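Feature request, filed as a ticket because there's no other form

It would be nice if the structure record came with a short human-readable summary line next to the tokens. Right now we just get the raw output. Example of a typical job, pasted below so the devs can see what we mean:
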Amino acid sequence: MNNINLQRYHDSIGHSGKSFFNKWYRKKFEKFYRKHENEYITKNEIVSDAYRLYMDGGMSKEEYTKIRKDSDPLLFHPISRFFIMLPEEIHTWLCCGWKIYDKELKSWEINDKAHMLSKLCRYETWDDVKITWWDKIRFWLITGYRFVE
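Raw output as currently delivered:
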């Protein structure tokens, strides 16, 4: 990956980037973790044990998914979850556009049509793309770096 913009964009998708939203997420999550450390560790052990059992063939994917969902500490603390996930939601919106509710899957999914039209994640594959000032602002908000022309 020789394109520095693309490399920075992909690095920012994880929570380790230097952008404001990544720092905000980490700060809120660390505060939550300190407050609920014992609960978090216990529930992670339950999920890890279920994952090993699932990988060994002793549990179905549906059972594993249910255990994972039932053992998510953030689901037991909806107010904390809202504040922890808020920077993630804003970051996702800046990257890919709005999420839509898929009635068949009964979950919120990224709108693929909007995502595929995002210049920031696809601009290197398009010959006629002109990066606008709004794209440059979005890039800075997402990555924490200026867009290099």
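Something like this underneath would help us a lot:
The helical segments are 4-12, 20-35, 37-55, 61-70, 78-96, 112-116, 119-122, 133-143.
Residues 1-15+78-149 form one domain.
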